Amino acid sequence: MASHGSFTIILLPKQIANEEQWNKLVELAREFRLTSLKLAGGLFGRSYEQEVDMPLEFWTNRVANPKATTFVAVRRETSDTNDTQSNDSKLIFESEWLGWIVPLGPQDGFAEFPGSTSPWEMLSRDNTVSPRNDAMPTSIRQFLITGMFVLPNTRGTGVGRALVNTALDNALRETKASGAKEMMCTLIVDKDNDPARTLYERCGFQGVREKWFKPEIGEERIALTMRLSRSVDAV
């Protein structure tokens, strides 16, 4: 748990022994995902209508996916500041969710993540992503940042940047623990989404490729691939 004044960032567990709590967690994740699709569905290439009727298994697999790490920013009430009894579980279930980010990985070596294919589909299919011919499988760990979303009335308060930096710091720790020398994070953003692109640039990402993309919903637009690399020596 990392506190940032009015909010706290929490790592969602991939399993909970208490079945009732686990089901509640999955439902909270489902509700927040559907909220993000209602408010910004066109930016995800998916729609609320496409996911609202998905079965429980779909949502359970998302939360429990071993290749997905979900960080959630929750509102931190003033009363929590001096409450030493507060813990991640209490905040997850009782506090308002403000935003989240879902890094997928790690993937050995340098891989391409095509914007035309859902990274979730690739991971569920074979739990990996096909490396490029020039991959360096033992020296790099690559992550794909997906599902970044912050509630509109919370934007501009530092939540987005804190989520991105938390994801990057975690990826770098995982990379170092694996013995690899370099961490690489990739994301794909709508080129015309200026606020998101500016946020990623401020966090150190650079645009590396543009490609016309036809999402499952909406009109064709330009997808910008952005990338950031860090050496484990930075830890």
Shape: globular
The amount of beta strand, in percent, is 25-35%
User: What percent of residues adopt helix (DSSP H or I)?
Assistant: 25-40%
How many runs of DSSP E, i.e. beta strands?
8
Task: Tell me about this structure.
Helix content is 35%, strand content 27%. With 235 residues, it is α+β, with helices and mostly antiparallel strands.
Output the keywords.
alpha+beta; globular; 7 helices; 35% helix; 8-stranded mixed sheet; 235 residues
Tell me the layout of helices and strands.
Elements: E1 2-4, E2 7-11, H1 19-44, H2 48-51, H3 56-64, E3 71-75, H4 88-94, E4 97-108, H5 119-126, E5 140-150, H6 159-178, E6 182-190, H7 194-202, E7 206-213, E8 221-231
Parallel strand pairs: 5-6
Antiparallel strand pairs: 1-2, 2-3, 3-4, 4-5, 6-8, 7-8
Helix pairs in contact: 1-3
Short synopsis of the structure:
The chain has 235 residues and is α+β, with helices and mostly antiparallel strands.
